[in-house]
Structures are given as structure tokens and as C-alpha cells.
């Protein structure tokens, strides 16, 4: 157990003490006890930068289940470190923000911080685990803690709905990912990421390559809210705003991005990977940006914008995988796509975090998040306005903020895709820049809506619950830090290039690293008059036109009916599967014992017949059949006639008597076949059971005592004939297949010699195999006690 | 000679048995059937005795006694049931 392990587990350990802090120090906001931990961890992870920037990694191992190859191996490389810094850094800011956002005496702070710490530890575990099973365990813990956080206000119905929806979708994806991990294990024989990376060729040519790829991608797409699994993210906005800012913009939804980046070295060369990652990313980008324009709730706009930005990063990762096909060339144009992906990942975390916090402030200070009620807040909250403006402009891709840089790089990558002549890109490649451009226009439009509908325009005090005013300074600290990062990264982008981006790229594209020492990352403001610049200018012009004319064309969203939306499909699936399951269960579980017996016997017949046929086991051999005398014939006829006539008699009394007659005939059989003890017992037992039947008969209720013949049912007849013939066939074949001689000779020789008895049956019952007898005695005892209990114990006698 | 006699006797018993079973099945009233059953019991005694002669065994003599007892008890129980509707009366002192 090293310090690195402790760092990953520290949030989980601290969460144990949260209720104690909450109860013991009730006057101090519990968040203050949480705050030092992410700051400490952030500083601790900063100390890894010198190591990773020289392309080295730190690996610490801790045995968990070594016999199964499952060990808690923590590995810090460029990619993991980047995510760890995001998690701890934004985590610290979110905790600070939540201290001012959540009221001390109204909210259940202890549970909130327990869930948040659980999430933080789980997320650190996901990005720093080298062992895939451990990674999966942490992955599910993030789903679980996210479920708890979305449902934090569990008395609201919508919170519960959102929590359930996100749980179902992300756990579905998580299980698919587990399947992918197991397939990878089958292919390589190890769960260790590092060892799997070292044999990409074996995996690439394996039959299970495509299934594993699909399973892993399903996990990544559901977690990162890609099309069509994005539907849980807008509903997760019912969570408290710090949670939305932390989980649903900066960290958890990027776990899928992390997964795709992590698996690029393994799957990246496949065309399926390219088309799925880049294609789904682009679709998500367009879909999310178009639907974000439609929303009227601040957090819903931000949720759809998160979906769309995640699609952007995803498509960049897909295009970045092209670099693997360019091995050896110095001018590898597609590494730039990966650079853009990593850079935008950081940028998105900064500006989206600040935007969420600003939206939370607006909600907190005005009591609503509906942009139709808001407006003209610029005079009341100038600082929040500045924060929102910077964040939104960065999101829209305007200079001099960091969003501008990543958008330029995004356009570069998408334009370059058209130059490729593989994977059918010669025909479809042109759609990439077109879709990217279209999505950017809509991104611009909703960013403008977000800022200007909220802060400018007419102030409508009659629609607000309280008088708006600027937020307390403590609430503003975190978004101010984030927007200053937006500006700093925008103006000095190369601050990050050597320390974070280059090592992260080394982790995403390790096979390209052999040619050089490190990836040269240089992000420049001015490319010259390239096509990307004109695209950006086009975005701004088109976006301004669309924003100004928005009231005129907003009706277009009503063209698409609600029934065709994916949410409707999801709801119908949930409802439909419930009704279908209900119907299915009601169909076969109808409560009638007769039906269940039909199932049991039909199954028995089918299974036995198929086995008999399949093994060709039916055999009739008259070799060791003994002579059938006249007594046997007579007795057999008696039994058959007696049993069959039971089926056809009218009165139940008669059938009881007939049953007795059959039983007595059986005892005669025992006599003929020389079994005196059996005959004795059979006679006594038959008499007693006939008497018991008569007792039952006597107590039949008068109303139901109709004396009719048993009704004929074809199913019953078929089933009974089937059971009879199958059992007969098996008995005949078993007798014909007699393979060994009996062991009874031993008993014949030793009954008197060893056991001092002459009655062999009785000696076997009490001496050779006395154990069976003991437990048959027990059975009788239990039966008699049970009968006694049933008769005497009438618990509801008093009630009636 | 003995063997032939036993064969004939067994055959007759079986015929009687068949007739009695016909009565058990057909018997218009319950007492008919009960009496037939009692007679079957007696017949069983005879058949068992004959078969033990055939098998040259005295292992079945207990069976004969038992059938006798059971046939008696059974018939009495049936008779009592048909007469009173119960077999074992409780609280007869009251």
C-alpha cells in the first residue's frame, strides 16, 4: 500500500468520518472539513508532473486477489494524471462552492458530502487503475454515487426519475464494458492494461476483436452521454447544482472519453472504431447543439451543451486514431486531432464548470432557472454576468478565450479528414466539416441565448420570487478561478502543452512515440488566413443572424413531435417491458396447479423422449426376461382393470374402494414375487390410507359434493399417455441394458454370518443400511407432528 | 395330483376375484361394494395360502393372519361409517 493508493482511497476513507463531523461540529459547515482533502490531493498530483512530462510512468501495485490476476495496480501516466488533476482541482472548487450553495441547517450535509467523496474516490480510481477489473469496480461506484447525488432531494419525484434513468443507462453500459473486459481477458489472458497494450497485434487479429470493441464502446458511450444514450444527462439536472457542475460537466461524463482515449492504442486501427467514435461523436455534437437551442431551463441548456461538447471531444478522438495509420511520417497531421481533444477536454471542464456555477448562482439568487422569467439581471449581478459571458464566449469559440483555440483545432482536424482516402472517406468525408460547422453555429446560438436572455433585456420582477442581488463572495470564488483559467489558457495555451497535453498524448498514442522523444504540441493563435479562420467567421455571422431571428424560426422545434423523441422511446421501453413482463408472467403463472403439472410433465416427456432418441437408447431385449406364469397374468389384468376403471367411475366412494382393491392386488403381487415383508406392510398401509381417504371424503363440503364423472380433457389424456409410454420405454430399455450383475450375493452370504439374522430384508433395513431407516422414521415423525399441528393449531380461530 | 388341485383351486379363486371386482365396480350401492371388498379379502387369504403351498414357503403365514384382521377391521369401519357417518366417535361420555 503506497501513498498513491492512499491518495486514491483517501476520499473513501474520509467519507466514513463525515457523519461524525456533521453531528459533532454542527455549527461549522461540514464542507469545510472536506475542502482540505481535494486541495491536498491536487497538490500531491501536481508533484507527478515532472515525472510524466519526461514520458515516464509511476506504477504501484497492491495485491487484492492475486490468484485471479486482480490486483489494485495504480498507474500514473499523462492521461491519468490529467484526469486526476481535473477531478481533484475542480473537486476542490466545487466543494468550496457547495459550502455557500447548500444551506447548513436545511440540507442533509452529511449524506451530501459522503456521496461526493465517494464519487471523488471512485473517479480517481477509474482514471488511475491499471487493472481493468479494479477500474470496472470504481466505474460502477461512480454510477452508484452519481445515482445517490442525482436523487439527493429524494422527496421530489423528478429527482428519483432522473436518478433511476441515469442508473439504468449507465449501469447497462457498465455491464457491457465488463463484458468487453472479459473478452479482452480471453484474448490476452491478463487484466492489466499495460500488458494488454503490449500485444495489440494478437488482439487485432482475434475473432473477438469486434465484440470486445463494441462492448467497450457501449460502456464509454452510455457514460459519456453519446447519441442515443445522452437522454439521462438532461434529467440528471435535478441534482444540486454543485453536483451538476462536478459530475455532469467536468468529471463523470468524461469517464467515457477517458475510456475511449485509453483504448485507442488497442482498437484505434480498426475502421469500425473510427466510424463509431467519430461518427457517433459528430451526431451527438449536432444533435446536442440543436436541442440545446430549444431548451428554456438554464441547466437544461447546459446539459445539452455538455452532450454536444462531449460529442466534439469524442469525434476528435476518433479522427485522432487516424494518426496510427501514418506511422513513420514526420508530418503526422492527425496527432493534432488528439491534441485538440485533450486541450478541449481541459477547456470544457473549465468553462462548463464556471457556467454551471453561474447558473446555480442565478437560481440561488432569483429562485428560478427559466430563461423566460429571467432578464435584465446585468444590473443586479455584474460579476455573475461577467463569469457567464466569458464562459459562454469560450464555449461558442470566440477569441481570446480557450474555446476559440480548441474550436480552430477541431475545424483543422475535420477539414483534414476529407483528405483521407480510406474507410470510404473519399465519399463521406465531406460530411465531417459540414456537420462540425453546422453544430458550431448552433453552439454559438445557444451560448448567446444563455447569456443575453438571462442578463440583458427587460427585467421582469413580477415573475421572480425574490429580489435578485449579487451572490456572496464565497460563492463567486470558484467560478472566478475557473474563468481566470479560461482566459489564462486562452492567452497562454502553451503553458499546458509540455506539462499536461504532451504526456497525455503519449498515453493515447504510445506507438507513435518511438520516432521521437515527445509530442511537439504547439498551440498558436494565428494560423494565417486558413480555411478554419473563414469557418469561424462564418460561424459568427451565421450565428448572429440565427440568434437575431430566433423567435421566427423557433417554431421549427414543434415540427418534431414529442412522440419521436428518444425520451419517449425510453419511457415506452421501460413501461412496455414492465407490461410485457407482467403479461408473460401472468400468462404462464396462472395459479392453477393443473397447469403447472402440465408444464412439469410435458417438460419431462420432451426431455426424456429427446434424450432417448438422441442417444438411440431405446432397446428391447428379451434375453433375460423370465417366464410369465398364469398368476402374474391374472394379477396384472386385475391391476390394469382396477386402475382404468378408477378413471371412469362416477362416485368418489367407488374410486376410493377401487384404489383399495388395486392396492390389495399389489400386495398379492408381492406374495407371488416372494416378498412377505412387503406384502405385510402393503396390506396395513393400504388399509390405513383407504380409511384416511374415506375421512377426507366425508369432510367434503356439501355444496361441492357433486357426483359427476371426471371430465375428459385432451391435454390431460395426451400428457398421461405420454408419461406412461415414456416411463415404460425407459424401464424396458433399462432392463435390456443391464450391464452389471447385482450385489445382492453379498447379502445372501453374509446375512447370518455377519449380522446374525435370517430375515434378509429386515437385516438390510436395520443393519446393513440402517441409516435410511433412521431417516424414514424421522419422516414419519415429522408427518405425524405436522398433522397434529395442523389439526390443533388454528391461529385465526379467534378472529372468526 | 396336489399340484393340479392347487391349480384348479387358484383358478376358481381368480374367477371369484374377477366376479367380486365386477361387483366392486358395478355394485349399485355402497354396501354391495363393501361386501365385495370383504369377500375379496377372504379370497386373498385363500390365494395367499395356495400360493405359499406352490412356493413351498411358510413365510406368508403372517400375511394370511394379517389379511384376516384387516378385512375384519376394514369391513367393520366401513359398516360403521355407513351406519353413523363417523368411524371414531369422540367424547362418548357426554
TrEMBL record, chain A:
- What are the MrpA C-terminal/MbhD domain coordinates in residue numbering? 637-702
Instruction: Provide this UniProt record's keywords sorted from A to Z.
Output: Antiport, Cell membrane, Hydrogen ion transport, Ion transport, Membrane, Sodium, Sodium transport, Transmembrane, Transmembrane helix, Transport
Instruction: Provide the primary localization.
Output: membrane
Q: Report the InterPro entries cross-referenced here.
A: CPA3_Na-H_Antiporter_A, MrpA/MnhA1/PhaAB, MrpA_C/MbhD, MrpA_C/MbhE, ND/Mrp_TM, Proton_antipo_N
Q: Taking every annotated instance into account, which residue ranges of this chain make up the domain MrpA C-terminal/MbhE? A: 714-792
Pfam families associated with the record: MbhD, MbhE, Proton_antipo_M, Proton_antipo_N
One GO term under biological process is:
proton transmembrane transport
The answer on whether this UniProt entry bears the keyword Lyase reads no
What Gene Ontology terms describe where this protein resides (cellular component)?
plasma membrane
Q: Which GO terms describe its molecular function?
A: antiporter activity
Q: Which domain of life is it from?
A: Bacteria
Where can this protein be found?
Cell membrane; Membrane
Tell whether Secreted is among the UniProt keywords: no
Topology within the bilayer? Multi-pass membrane protein
Indicate the segments forming the NADH-Ubiquinone oxidoreductase (complex I) chain 5 N-terminal domain, all copies.
Answer: 65-113
Which ranges carry the NADH:quinone oxidoreductase/Mrp antiporter transmembrane domain? 129-425
Q: What transmembrane ranges does the database entry give?
A: 6-22, 34-53, 79-100, 112-128, 134-154, 166-188, 208-233, 245-267, 273-293, 300-324, 336-362, 374-396, 430-452, 473-492, 526-547, 596-614, 626-649, 656-673, 679-700, 712-732, 773-791
Q: Which family does it belong to?
A: Belongs to the CPA3 antiporters (TC 2.A.63) subunit A family.
PANTHER family listed in its UniProt record: NA(+)/H(+) ANTIPORTER SUBUNIT (PTHR43373), NA(+)_H(+) ANTIPORTER SUBUNIT A (PTHR43373:SF1)
The protein depicted here goes by the name Multicomponent Na+:H+ antiporter subunit A
UniProtKB/TrEMBL annotation, chain B:
Its transmembrane ranges are 6-25, 34-54, 60-82
UniProtKB keywords: Antiport, Cell membrane, Ion transport, Membrane, Transmembrane, Transmembrane helix, Transport
MF term (GO), any: sodium:proton antiporter activity
Presence of the UniProt keyword Transmembrane in the record: yes
Q: Which InterPro entries match?
A: MrpF/PhaF-like
Q: Which domain of life is it from?
A: Bacteria
- Could you give one GO CC term from the UniProt record? plasma membrane
Keyword Zinc in the entry? The reply is no
Alphabetical list of Pfam families matching this protein: MrpF_PhaF
Which cell locations does it reside in?
Cell membrane
Q: How does it sit in the membrane?
A: Multi-pass membrane protein
The family assignment reads:
Belongs to the CPA3 antiporters (TC 2.A.63) subunit F family.
Q: Please give the name of this protein.
A: Multicomponent Na+:H+ antiporter subunit F
Q: What is the lineage of its organism?
A: Bacteria, Bacillati, Bacillota, Bacilli, Bacillales
